[in-house]
UniProtKB/TrEMBL annotation:
Keyword Disulfide bond: yes
UniProt-listed Gene3D superfamilies: Immunoglobulins (2.60.40.10)
One BP term from GO: immune response-regulating signaling pathway
Keyword line: Disulfide bond, Glycoprotein, Immunoglobulin domain, Repeat
Domain Immunoglobulin: 10-90, 102-184
Species whose genome carries this gene: Turnix velox (Little buttonquail)
Keyword Translocase (UniProt): no
Gene coding for it: Igsf1
Entries under Pfam families matching the protein: Ig_3
Protein name as catalogued: IGSF1 protein
Amino acid sequence: GALTISIFLKPPGVIPLGGSTTICCSCQRDSGTFVLLKNGHRVHTSELRSSRAEFTISNATREDTGPYSCHYLEGDTVLARSETVEVQVEEFFLPTPVLSVLPGSDVAVGEDVVFYCTIAEPEALCYLYLEGRVGPIEFLWNEPDYNLSRVHKGNEGLYSCQCFTRNVSIKWSAVSKTLNLVVR
């Protein structure tokens, strides 16, 4: 099959001014080179270590905002390109939301679970993130909850949420603490 590259932010979500994030790129190879691009221009190069390369943005400024992607090279030949992940850097003005899950974070295969993202801001809209995904897995519009029916092993992982309001200008919250969903 074709070589594929995954790209994601760790932690996911909008980054605070002065904060940091790591752009993770991985593929099914254990040697070669990853090139990180921003707006199509080379930013960093890293040798592959155990099928993964990590690029850290520290002390983030608004100039770090933009689309990032990874290319996987062997020698000078590009063998694969990742999707694009958007990095967004903002000031945080809202309280930090709390993510919870019912019936709990340790569930059996086939159970239904509901994630709740709670924030002390009545007009807030929220995103639900799963680490390892390019973007949010769900946009929580009028109901701050997300139902997962008949969970399976593929639903396992680190979840978090982040909220914003969009009155006159968009105001963001920090990302909630992560919640580890285990499916047994």
